[in-house]
User: What shape does this take?
Amino acid sequence: MTTADLPMSLLHRHDAEVAALLQREDERQSATLTLIASENHCSPAVREASVSRITDKYAEGYPGKRYYGGCEVADAVENLARRRALQLFAGAEEANVQPHSGTTANLAALLALAGANGRIVGMALKAGGHLSHGHDKSHTGVVFHPKQYGVDDKGLIDLDEVRAVCKEHQPKVLIAGGSSYARNLDYAAFAAIAKEVGALLLADIAHPSGLVAAGVVPSPIGHADVVTMTTHKTLRGPRGGMILARKDIAKQINSAVFPGAQGGPLVQQIAAKAVAFGEALQPAFRQYQLRVKENAAHLAACLLDAGLDIVTGGTDNHIVMVDLRKTDVTGADAEARALAAGLSVNKNAVPGDPRPPMVTSGLRLGTAAVTTRGFGKAEIARIAAVIVGLVRGEDPAKSRLVVRELCERFPLP
Ligand SMILES: Cc1ncc(COP(=O)(O)O)c(C=O)c1O
Assistant: This one.
């Protein structure tokens, strides 16, 4: 079936230009395998909630205490999302489901816990941390006073270095978590360091939040004072953020989210978060997360078997970081070849990367989205073979056929 055969939607009749672009994106995703570790494919029910009429509603404030009338349904939606979030993340005391994104969640948590000009310590971007952990181009590097820690030459967090940076900088907040860290974090050790220097611990589980919810990787809850996350990566919800906090700091967190970091909440996204949390509470979600992890471990093993290097030698979660330094291919080259073959990936710096950020020597891969499509170990092995072929200089057109066949066999949800 081609686009021309589809029944004409309201949007097509109303705005053909935008409709055509969205249709193109639909086709792009259908015909591409997403191996970008921060992406996933949410369910049609999540998508339906996120385009619902409640998008029209202003609901500044919190349930029962809004600055606008007519919020009774918005209140019920937000309370439902909060309740489900607390069921999902066992041991969490309070949930704020309003952050528009992971970055806003971090800004709000840091505003609440460190205050303006407050000292913070997080992982450096080039070591695998996130911009919103105090990078100088992020507002978290402007509003707060950051110092950063890195990783050792194997790509692992060195807790002695974390402690040394904290002792020197005396932060109010220590941040644990990253964007391209494939190993479990020792949250108890981070909490002990935070305690030693009188800091609070913020765990950013933007990446592994789905794995944490399903109990297949360690949870920071009980160790961290506050936990931030995105809802659109492994958690497989709509684009957005969330904060879990201890009861005694929840009030500060709430006022740092609104009015501190943002205005009216996106109630349609909160409704979609509630749907995603409901899905994540089903037994099938745990099975899905176990497969995500198993697929990532298999991907790393297949690439290692074929002679490629993997940062830290493997993975504990959904991320596989390929180190291309031994080859004559840069991260940017590998990304371009993969895209030509229909694999959506991103170049990424590896620890100690000699190349600039727009080139890099690594590829970051993730298995959340292809596992949602139904991939198991057999399909992962075929994708690993494609990646190895591309790195060795095989024609992407040949790989495109394999990718196309897999896309057709495993359609989007
Ligand atoms: C660790 C971490 N924190 C925060 C974020 C920010 O999320 P968002 O893009 O929703 O602002 C990301 C996004 O990739 C992330 O990896």
